[in-house]
Design a protein that fits this description.
Distance between the termini: 12 Å
Order of helices and strands: HHHHHHHHEEHHHEE
Low-confidence stretches: 219-224
Strand content: under 5%
């Protein structure tokens, strides 16, 4: 089953405003961190504890936010990631943004279990005595947090809007692509110099960035002016047609309102009047006979 069929089947279940949902989770996490800090250890992504019945950790680790003791920096961070995440969702579409975020979370979970397997493989029987495994994995579980998920969101934003400028320290204007390069270099050296846990956490959390952009290069390097023109076109279409559209892709559901610069064509090989956007015109499965695809 290819990507377009997944989108057609599961796209309706995509979570809208996912960045806001994540920020709300972080806010709850900060409340827990400041008021009942001992509780954090029971929420972390600990594969050893999960296999011993604490399955809630597969979800609750998302509530553990990036570390910060400054409330101003916390609020600034929450606003920043909500802003760039919302921009990505509007640009890519809700479905693709969901795939990116949940893919990063899934890779993080798989990475934690792979880390446990490698630990047993290379450290052997000494982990089995005196509660060694429980203590070992508890200590490393906090490395698998949302910090690197947030970093993947920023890298995605830098790759999609490389020429957008931000104010470094609220003063110095700098293009986001250069910040992306700096962060990428920092992550590379953190991986080289990090310990056993950090290397697995970095690699697994950022794998979605590599996978997603290798398979979705057409989503990169969008010009902000094009996005602005697209939004203006959407408003004009809604104002002039009352929301009625002339074209709609049978796979992803996009219309000329969603993608003003997109070309739409009917497929002569499909049985029926099926119209597709330029991304799915040559990749869709042809409809042969009534109700078959």
């Amino acid at each position: 089953m290819n990507m377009s069929r997944f989108e057609r089947k599961f796209g309706k279940y995509a979570v809208r405003n996912l960045s806001l949902v994540l920020v709300c989770c972080y806010a709850v996490g900060y409340v827990i961190k400041f008021m009942v800090p001992w509780m954090e250890i029971f929420l972390s992504l600990d594969p050893y504890a999960i296999l011993h019945g604490q399955v809630w950790r597969l979800v609750t680790w998302v509530f553990i936010p990036p570390s910060s003791s400054n409330i101003f920096l916390v609020l600034l961070m929450l606003y920043f990631y909500c802003s760039i995440g919302t921009t990505l969702e509007r640009t890519w579409g809700t479905y693709r943004y969901n795939v990116y975020i949940f893919g990063g979370m899934l890779f993080t979970i798989l990475g934690s279990f792979l880390m446990m397997g490698c630990a047993y493989l290379f450290m052997g029987e000494r982990m089995l005595y005196d509660g060694g495994a429980e203590i070992f994995f508890r200590a490393g579980s906090l490395y698998f947090s949302t910090f690197y998920i947030n970093m993947s969101i920023f890298l995605a934003f830098a790759a999609t809007f490389p020429d957008v400028s931000v104010l470094l320290m609220f003063i110095i204007p700098i293009k986001v692509k250069w910040l992306g390069v700096v962060y990428a270099v920092m992550l590379f050296f953190s991986f080289l110099q990090g310990d056993f846990f950090m290397r697995f956490a970095i690699a697994s959390s950022l794998l979605n960035f590599v996978v997603f952009f290798l398979s979705s290069r057409n989503m990169m390097h969008l010009n902000p002016k094009q996005i602005h023109r697209r939004q203006e076109f959407k408003r004009d279409i809604r104002r002039n047609t009352g929301g009625i559209t002339k074209h709609k892709c049978a796979i992803c559901g996009r219309t000329e309102v969603d993608s003003p610069e997109m070309q739409f064509r009917f497929c002569s090989k499909c049985d029926g009047n099926y119209e597709y956007c330029e991304e799915h015109l040559y990749t869709h499965m042809h409809v042969k006979g009534r109700g078959n695809s």
